[in-house]
Structure formats: C-alpha cells, structure tokens
Amino acid sequence: MRVTATVNGLIRQADDVWEGESLLYMLRERLGLPGSKNACEQGECGSCTVYLDGAPVCACLVAAGQAEGRSVVTVEGLGSADDLHPVQQAFLRAGAVQCGFCTPGLIVAAHDLLSRIPMPTDLQIREALAGNLCRCTGYVKILDAVRLAAGEMNGDRE
Ligand code: FES
Ligand code: FES
Hints:
- The protein is of the alpha+beta class.
- It is 32% helix and 13% strand.
- The chain has 5 helices and 5 strands; from the N terminus they run ββαβββαααα.
- It has helices spanning 23-30, 86-93, 103-116, 122-128, 140-153; strands at 3-7, 10-14, 49-52, 55-58, 71-73.
- α2 (86-93) packs across α5.
- Bound molecules: FE2/S2 (inorganic) cluster (2 copies).
- One FE2/S2 (inorganic) cluster binds next to loops.
- Residues 97-102, 134-137 line the site of one FE2/S2 (inorganic) cluster.
C-alpha cells in the first residue's frame, strides 16, 4: 500500500508498505530518515521516539499505515546540521552522547518535555525520560543536557 504523510513539514509518500510494517521502518528504510533508531523494536527503549500529530510515540509500535494523512516529526525535523535545535546543541555541549543510539529518542522526549514545562524540576525530567533507556552515559550528563537546554531556551545564556 501507499502511505502519504507530512513528515518534517513535507508531504511524503512511501510505496509498497506492507500491512505489518512499522512507522519506524518506513521512516528509516523508505523515506531516508535514519535518525530514529531501532534498538529493541518492542516499545521498551524509546530510541525510536518521534512525534505523531504532536504527541511523542514509539515509532516501532505504530503501524506505518496509521500515519496516513497525519503529521510526523523526527529528530531530523527539529533542527539541521547547520542549525541545531537548542536541545540538540545541549546534548553535544553536555557530553550526553556516547554511542548515540539513544540520543534521537531522548532529544525528542526532552523537546516534548520542554515544550510543556519550560523549566522542569529534576524529578520532572526523570519522569519525562523514564521511557528512554541509555546503556552508556549513566544519565547524569543527559540530565545536565536537559537543564542546559532549558536554560538556553529561557534566555539564561552563558
Ligand atoms: S526501538 Fe522502539 S522502543 Fe525500542
Ligand atoms: S549514548 Fe549509548 S545508549 Fe545512550
């Protein structure tokens, strides 16, 4: 089947999508957007987190067909290599990226948190990121990154 959706602001079509295909597969393999990662394919790790109609979802658990006519935003849609989003910049500056497999999902989850709660407490950050697993960093630098991004986005520039 053909799936047509608005992806990162552009109308995109994916052909030959099979019924059981995930949105994650469609994004990565058919639309050339490899930012969202496939670490578990079971909804356990959050590395595939994208926005679907403005709500963060695990793209590995969403059927590609469910995206028909809807809006999808991936980590690639939050900023570009030349113009990183403050959340993306903060992850780099805080050293919150090691292997990077968890990073796209964490960035989308942090972006969503800061859009709802501009200056979250540590508890709110931990709760918001509870579904995103990282095997490498120990989370300390990830929390630092979210605090840094919150400060940057609220005019607390260093
Ligand atoms: S790959 Fe989707 S939650 Fe792990
Ligand atoms: S940086 Fe490797 S899993 Fe998080």
